[in-house]
Amino acid sequence: xxxxxxxxxxxxxxxxxxxxxxxxxxxxxxxxxxxxxxxxxxxxxxxxxxxxxxxxxxxxxxxxxxxxxxxxxxxxxxxxxxxxxxxxxxxxxxxxxxxxxxxxxxxxxxxxxxxxxxxxxxxxxxxxxxxxxxxxxxxxxxxxxxxxxxxxxxxxxxxxxxxxxxxxxxxxxxxxxxxxxxxxxxxxxxxxxxxxxxxxxxxxxxxxxxxxxxxxxxxxxxxxxxxxxxxxxxxxxxxxxxxxxxxxxxxxxxxxxxxxxxxxxxxxxxxxxxxxxxxxxxxxxxxxxxxxxxxxxxxxxxxxxxxxxxxxxxxxxxxxxxxxxxxxxxxxxxxxxxxxxxxxxxxxxxxxxxxxxxxxxxxxxxxx
Length: 368
What we know:
By secondary structure, this protein is of the alpha+beta class. The chain has one domain (2-134, 163-170, 195-316). The chain has nine helices and nine strands. The protein has a three-stranded antiparallel sheet. Strands 1-2 form a two-stranded parallel sheet.
């Protein structure tokens, strides 16, 4: 029965492989896993949505935010797997070889490059943890974000073939990395602060965030399945090439075109008169957590949007049955209600919907 499912999946993959924007890799090339890979615990600095932004207290830097960093295809720098908090500091100080910021594409809308890179790195890390013991029950712990983040891996009988196992591990890693991204949006809204005293609510559910995260997961899956996961150097270089290629196919804009698009949606998606970190500097948010998603529709754009997807099944295995991110009560849960036991991935959308309803009420009050 499993073999039949794998054949059905194989028949579907040629169509995905012909996708002109982000073709799925079907010719699997395996590489040794990295047993001592450190986790990408420290996220890259966020980019507040908008450009030419100002901070509430002039001259005082806002931790974890890069202000007005509009990128182009030629200013992306070099991807570097984010294996320490020092990487985030280097990004903030402008000392890193990689650059992070916002870039507009005609088919993918606004893309937050930091979110792309973060979820790509989480996919790569999780793959290296999952692949060697695929099918065995296990737990992978991350640092607290309001609650204790635990990736729960369930026991199952994996495929017999080496390439089939490799493929399943890569897609499962991408699926779980996207759940980590979903939770980060929720945690920011409910009060998580990377640096105590500095609110991150401005960034929660920003319209470009989760599309960018899903793009990062898909890119990393392709990099892994193309055989470029055998070393950090190979992974970093392959990510550079994959990122530039997909942005080109999404019809990436120039710096001037990105800034012009920001100007057109000023007052609709963001308020240029507000200052970072005021929450309602960002007026437009996307609370949809789905893995099958279009970019948040951009007014005035005439090109058809590109749909990003994460398959529910790979070779007859439902990814959500193989593992999930679970959030257990933490030391400081801020505004997040304490769960009876834990929040599973199935509870995430309800928390996002609650945030949406609250924001609608608050935003209506600010506009009176």
